[in-house]
Sequence to fold (778 residues):
Amino acid sequence: MKGIVHFIAGIAAATFVPKAADMAASGNSFVFLLGGLFGLLPDTLDFKFYHFFYRRDRNVDPDPASLDPKQIAQQVADCANDALKTGKEVRLQLHTIPLSADTWRRYTVAFDVEQSAVEVEIGPVITTSQVPFWGSAPKENNYGRAKVNGRMLYTYDRSTAVDILRGPSFSFLPVGKDQVEIAFLPWHRSWSHSVTLSLFCGAVMWLLLGMAYGLATGLAMLAHVLLDSLGFMGSNLFWPITKKRTLGLRMTRSASAMPNFVSVHASLVIILFNLNRMSATPVFHAPWYEFFLWSFALPLAVLLVLAEVFKRYEPPAPKEPAVLRQLEIQDEQTEMFG
Amino acid sequence: MGISGVIGLGIGSVFSLLPGLHVYNIAGLILLYSLAHPGAIAEQALPGLMLGMVVGYAFVSNIPSLFLGAPDESAIFVVLPGQKYMMSGRGYEAAMLMGVGSLLALVALMLATPFLVGVLPDVKTVLRPHMFWILAAVLLFLVMSEWPKGTDREKTGIGRWLGGWRNVGAGLLTMAVSGFLGIVLMNSAILPSEAGFQGFMPVFIGLFAIPMVLTNIISNAPVPKQHFSTGVDLTWGTMLRGAGGGVLGGLFAATFPVVTGGIGGLLAGHATAQRDDRSFVVSQGANKLVYYVGAFLLFFLPGSGLGKGGMASMTSIVYSPKRPEEFYALMGIAALMGVVAFFFSLFAARLTVRILARVDYRRVSLVTLVLALVLVAVPFYSSGVHSLIMAYAVTLVSAGIGMLPVAFGARRVNCMAVLLVPLIINMSGLGPPVLRFLGL
Fold:
């Protein structure tokens, strides 16, 4: 989920704490701010600190002047093979291919689990907004494949695009003699996204500032872990007791607009409901189910219907939607000026 | 009301073409004139006149910001997709997209009127005692949502962390010094109080306009050939997603104090997970319209306490809304004027492209800079030389702060701490000790 979802969900979780709204209304609103802060804390720990210091054993840094997909595939496969050979974990960092300040060359790395192979495809030139340029994908020497000497255990998306800013990383962990478990972004959603750390942070804040603060911060972090569990990657829920991430429920994609928006909407409605409920002079007097029917369920139903209608009438996406395609059309239809 | 609206639309549209000039500056001068010459502008003509100006500004001011804000490619991470369109020769198309966003926002405003009238005042009543922490939460989110942008090629962890934190650190520094500047300016007599609502103009010109123009002059980036598109590459879904996000951001900015359209747009963009440049540009147009026009229209709902913004504050000095019918009449006028302003903005975009094709872009930027510096003097010229000197000193300091995010690839919206920080400190009750600590 996006950062704003976790931030607002953290605040929403904090509004369930008895006396929190009273405290906030009387000027002591630190408790809600802590809810937002701790709601976003797991991702802050991962993306602003931990990931920079996470050990990396191999780097794949393709040369834009002489791109060789077979060589890239072999480098990735070598990580799996070396993990199997040595019996030790190998961590890989894939680097992006910057071409200028706003253009990058996309390539994708796929794990063919059935055939035990790594596939690499060189893609088009894209902008930082990830819009590809029409016809910029190489016509030749654009595909490479390398064999892995064992079975791959991989549960995340089959292929991963390496395109803008920093690239993704993988870990290859041998399981027995002929199996290797592959983890996408192994530094993410590990200890920072655990129920145990949430409870620990809540307990520390309880001891330092009191029960309301402890509950608010603990609930906010738990809300983050819960929301992320709806996705694909999952989290290491009971670190340090468990060592690996538990698979997510695969209900949402973290970058999808609809789940993000619905989560923000739900959080805002919860905040409004709780603030009104705890107010000395409530403005809304409807029972909770009626309140949520009008403020959440009905708008959501309208939104879902609209989304479905527009999806039906949406023209099929062109094979290569692109900036240059747009300019080519304009060249034909419009007056050139300048 | 209708005729005055058309006159206002003309004034707002034409003056919005001048880079750096805000419609509030012109509205302020008109208001000062009407105060000095009672009866010169009829009381009942004022709402239409002001509304026309703000509608014209919401549509047409996109043009100078699109075409005169072209940075060189090294600054691409800090420019908005609208400027990226311009740099790829599609500035006219971006102007169309923004205009479409603004038109859709007008439709959304009309459709949302029953909700705004019926529910928003109640929501605001519930939230009123909590305004302080809501604003503090906005500031906290701005701080926390600036993510590292490095490419991770450094060999050591510390090296990678420092590389990644370059923009994050610059964002935090920008926020801190902007906030400090705001505290000092709001609690001292550096800028004379006679300037009233225009008093913060040196700060905004320094923080936002001058860094943009200076970047153009220094980079000397050539303006690419511009294409006059006959249509836009936009599906219904993309268009409505963009407009929806923009309207939400604009509504948030239009109802909460100090939250600007930029901040509202940023939050709504995150909330609706927008990644597509086209929907982002549409959302910019929608956001701007709701922020300016919506906030001003809500002022005409008697007893709602919903109006916000410079135009509402200025108008409230000489006019108070009397009947709800005024709101509905003005809503209709805004819709009609919006259509006219849309077509005028397209004409203005074509005109700007033609001018830019003939005149050296650097020269245009220099003229923009001179114009911005002249504007700084307008509210202060009558307060004496000392005030003028102080206004330019504040502009210089603000411009220095405004260059920080541009130079280090951080978000420019962090500069809005200049308003958020002093307000939050005052609302939290920490104002007096902070001022004592700073010796103010």
